[in-house]
Design brief:
Elements lengths: L8 H29 L4 H28 L3 H9 L6 H12 L1
């Protein structure tokens, strides 16, 4: 079973990936509609900043996991690219848990 503890590189990647995925969905499906349909740009600034910080943390956690577990470049690249898709990090979590 995958150790979801924040003490391990994989655990950190999964936890940060979850937070990054949630922030991306909030940005896309709550903050952006508020900006363009209700003329409320403030949520995009706040959620966008939070999402940006979480994305950088995700990239760093992914780099640490790649180095620690000696993942091939292709696996790390796919893990990076799925973070650009809505629900991508949740999908990646399921794949990584199955591999373990």
């Amino acid at each position: 079973m995958t150790d979801n503890s924040i003490k391990t590189p994989l655990g950190r990647l999964l936890k940060i990936g979850f937070a990054e995925g949630v922030s991306f969905l909030v940005l896309l499906f709550i903050a952006m509609p508020l900006k363009y349909m209700a003329d409320m740009p403030a949520p995009v600034r706040v959620v966008g900043m939070l999402h940006g910080i979480l994305f950088v943390m995700y990239a760093l956690a992914l780099l640490q996991a790649k180095i620690t577990y000696q993942w091939k470049f292709k696996k790390a690249l796919i893990a990076f690219l799925v973070s650009f898709l809505p629900f991508g990090t949740f999908f990646l979590e399921r794949i990584l848990k199955k591999e373990d």
